[in-house]
Structure formats: structure tokens, C-alpha cells
């Protein structure tokens, strides 16, 4: 998940918060790519939306309940990108260290 979008109900102002920082997914993709000597794309930046969480709680995927939402669109783009990949890194040692 890349950012949390909060809409204030009274003013309809939208705030975006990045609770996990920024750029970590891309950095990880770059590090994996360097380790296996191949381009590893960042597949998606999924915004955390209240509707996404609610759908997860109720078993109603946002791609079905609100396919026009930003999160649903990000999931759809990710699926499209995965479908057209010819090579997988599944099962490869990735050389990642959780300590940095």
C-alpha cells in the first residue's frame, strides 16, 4: 500500500498520508533486479482507501464493488502488467536482507 487518503466529511478536504514512507517498493524492485541481473518492475502503488479495507472485511473486493475507484484501477493495472510478463522470479533466491 502506498498512501492513505482521508476525506474530511465536513469540509470534503482530502489529505494524503504516507505511513510507510515513500519509494520503498521501487527500491526493493531495483535491489531484486540488481541481484538477479534483470529488470524487476514495481507492479503497483495501491492507495489505502476506507472502501478497500471495508471490502476486505466483508469479502467484497473493491474491484467488484467500486471498479472506478483509484484502488480498483491500481489493482486492474497490476493484473494487466502481470498477465503480460513472460518471465517470473517465483522461486528464485532474491538476496534480500530484512535488516537493510
From TrEMBL:
Keywords: ATP-binding, Nucleotide-binding. The keyword Nucleotide-binding applies. One of its GO terms (molecular function) is ATP binding. This is B-cell lymphoma 3 protein. It comes from Platysternon megacephalum (big-headed turtle). The lineage of its organism: Eukaryota, Metazoa, Chordata, Craniata, Vertebrata.
Amino acid at each position: 500500500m502506498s498512501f492513505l487518503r482521508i476525506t474530511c466529511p465536513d469540509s470534503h478536504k482530502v489529505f494524503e498520508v504516507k505511513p510507510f514512507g515513500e519509494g520503498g517498493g521501487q527500491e526493493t524492485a531495483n535491489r531484486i533486479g540488481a541481484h538477479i541481473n534483470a529488470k524487476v518492475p514495481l507492479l503497483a502503488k495501491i492507495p489505502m482507501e476506507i472502501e478497500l479495507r471495508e471490502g476486505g472485511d466483508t469479502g467484497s473486493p473493491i474491484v467488484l464493488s467500486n471498479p472506478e475507484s483509484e484502488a480498483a484501477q491500481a489493482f486492474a493495472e497490476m493484473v494487466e502488467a502481470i498477465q503480460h510478463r513472460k518471465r517470473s522470479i517465483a522461486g528464485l533466491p532474491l538476496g534480500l536482507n530484512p535488516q537493510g
